[in-house]
Amino acid sequence: MMGTSLPRAVLALALTVAVVGAADAAQRKKPADPSIWEPTRRAPLTEVKGDPVRGRVIVIKKGSCLTCHVMPIPEEADHGDIGPPLATVGSRYTPAELRMRVVDPKVLNPDTIMPSFYKSTLNRVAKGLEGTTFLEAQEVEDVVAYLSTLK
Ligand code: HEC
């Protein structure tokens, strides 16, 4: 009979810690920029449909996604495991959910070390690159199209 002999004070303390902990987590998960949740921000960034073949190349080269993710790209030797494996990511998320994670993962987790690939307010960028994004809009669409094929 677990729990029945637990002193009330201990139980109350445990409950308080649990409630405060949950509130804390909810606070941290709060979107940094609520406008990203608007339907328009979840929609494709361009009119042109993403190309998964180009997306795969961008993931390897310009995006350097393999630094942190294991992906089904056997010709590349080094895959990091700082982030979750992406082998089945296309079956777990819709294109809109994938897009959001590539555009600005900090909306979902402000503490994430994953870079925001389509955010123009990056901190201390090199002179002349202020206001630019890591990836261009069409490149984001290509990457999303590629990730969607990972099922
Ligand atoms: C510096 C490391 C790093 C790089 C580079 C990086 N990511 Fe991530 N990524 C992460 C981490 C860590 C997470 C886990 C999310 C979190 O931290 O909250 C993640 C999560 C994700 C997710 C969600 C996975 C899931 O199962 O929830 C996707 C999709 C993703 N990354 C795609 C990409 C793509 C595409 C690129 C390249 C354009 C990329 N990442 C580059 C670290 C990285």
UniProtKB/TrEMBL annotation:
Pfam families referenced in this protein's UniProt entry, alphabetically: Cytochrom_C
SUPFAM superfamilies (alphabetical): Cytochrome c
Residue ranges constituting the Cytochrome c domain according to the UniProt record: 50-151
TM helices/strands, residue ranges: none
GO molecular-function terms, A-Z: electron transfer activity; heme binding; metal ion binding
PROSITE patterns found in the cross-reference section: CYTC (PS51007)
Stated name of the protein: Sulfur oxidation c-type cytochrome SoxX
Protein's gene: soxX
